[in-house]
Input
Amino acid sequence: MFCFFIGSCFGSLLCVIAQRVPLKKDFITTRSQCDHCNNTLRFWELIPIFSYLFLGFRCQRCGGRIPVITWLIEIIYGGIFYFCWVQPTISMQLIAFLWLTTATLLSLTDYFYFLVEPKILYPLHLLLWSIMFYFHQPFYLSTLSLLVILGIFFWFSLRDSMGMGDWLLLGLWVPWLTIEQFSLLLFVASVSALGVFFVSYFLRKTHFQCLPFVPFLSLGLFVAYFL
Output
């Protein structure tokens, strides 16, 4: 439980980073504020998971609704942090922590802004690749070649189905995946995205103009590579 709670604290921080970095706002020294009234949050309003429940997902001063996404990420990343902690080797702990943290951050920027943020994408993947090479993880040129072929096909036939940021992200992931893992990643991402689309369309009557795809790619990565 202690490990999960520490992870939920990191999850809250990841939400702040994902919201502020694309807007070029400081996330290190500036304290958390209400999105509606801009009042600085007090310490007891920042307790991961529990503060949201105590406040009823509303700012106590202005009554503005607190987005549920932050609460969900605190729970999800608490589980991710625990998952990384129980990996059997230090190499797998580091790889899982960095890869899944990067995927979570980019999922959040895609969710908030439909953007694969370059200031997060490139530095963290440079570090990830360095660690993967350092621990002699297999590098699969065959999977990268398959991605290039798929990219050419989609460019000429289904250009609008995925953004360039999604393809670039896959290009940084797939050299470390077998063709079977890559296929499973795409399958899980596609099925889960379609599931969310249809549930939202038929049950909530929500009509998406576009859907952030990085969260589904991240789910596919977790299933294909880490499970």
Q: What stands out?
A: The longest helix spans residues 90-113. The mean pLDDT is 86. The CA atoms of residues 53 and 71 lie 9 Å apart.
